């Protein structure tokens, strides 16, 4: 049976668990999850990094995981989901972002737009769009906000494709390389995924600490 076909899950699917998602939906689940995480603001909680790395591990022949995956299919699904999601998020922001930010009830979203503008101004559009792929939550928010902030469509498309391809292919191949070099790597699947999640949160934690430091410094100078 192709991994692109939906499989009947014996138990409820845990959206926060990469193994559960892959076991239930295979490569199709990768495309759907990455589309939601990078294109829809409601997808910020989805496990993009750990999903890609785990999928790479499960592509190794002989791996005993929740499902056996095909590396070409995983790469195609991952790249397609990430690129289409980011582009959809950008156009959602381009068409309705300003109206959404103007609503009084969208205070947190307006604050996020201010931070996105700061990020874009600090690193430049190209670098910010690429770097955002590797930071959980930021990769969800930046795409719609880039559209709302009128980042040129051609520039956004070019660099989101570069960032999306490097992020997806890099993590999948990293998982595949580890699985190919470590015998019976599936025995250590949960600890490995936990480490991947922890490492993926480091850039977000560092940015939060820098932002807190800037606010403290501004308060001391006022």
Secondary structure tally, helices: 8
Please state the average pLDDT score.
Answer: 76
Note the gap between the termini: 65 Å
N to C succession of SSEs:
HHHHHHHH
How large is the share of residues in beta strands? under 5%
Structural category is mainly alpha
Give me the count of strands: 0
Radius of gyration (Å)? 18 Å
> Residue share in helices?
over 70%
Flag low-confidence runs: 1-10
Shape: elongated
Largest sheet: none
Describe the structure.
This protein has about 220 residues and is an all-alpha fold. The protein has helices at about 20-40, 50-60, 70-100, 105-125, 125-130, 140-150, 155-180, 190-220.
Summarize the structure.
The protein is an all-alpha fold.
Topology:
Blueprint: H1 18-39, H2 48-58, H3 71-102, H4 107-123, H5 125-132, H6 138-148, H7 153-181, H8 189-221
Can you give keywords for this protein?
disordered N terminus; 222 residues; elongated; mainly alpha; single chain
